[in-house]
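Sequence in, structure out. Go.
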Amino acid sequence: MSERKTDTISIGNGIQYAKVASRLAAFHEDNPSGCSIDTSCQFTEGWVIFTATVSTKKGTFTGHSMDKVSGRQKQFEKQETIAVGRALAFAGYLSSGDIACAEEMVDVVSQIELDTLKTRYWKLNEDVLKGKSKADIGWSFNDECRTVLGEEADYHDRHNWTRESFNLMMTKLGVDSGVPFEAVR
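Output:
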């Protein structure tokens, strides 16, 4: 199967991703008839799981997305879009050869970013935290996050972070979002 790279946007660090809308446009242009995109959704134990199936003359391709039900604005639509984007990528509509879509990547808080926040927190509170165990420092960081963000979540795990929460903590800890992470360590 030949891959079709679509128009991309830059999401930072030189990474180019295709918006799902661009992938859809290319898909419909290449398949004026005999194609379909079907989506379904299920809720289970506090999670929403989307499945998207793209059917073309070349075959059928499936993409999934899953997230905790949080009530965030546009969460439902976003998860459906991610599933469709993944199915389109499997069908050959790629961005820079990657499967993930821009909507997915922009919201991801990396382990490096989370570690940077933790390191910055430790440096700001070094006198108070000196001599404490790594676990106690982690729980102290978690408590600080809950104080700032007002949420009952475990902030040890990057999967619990939204981009909005991450940016709020960066501001609270005095990290300029324009400064490369290496500079704040």
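Check: The radius of gyration is 20 Å. The helical segments are 20-30, 75-90, 102-107, 111-124, 126-129, 134-149, 163-172.
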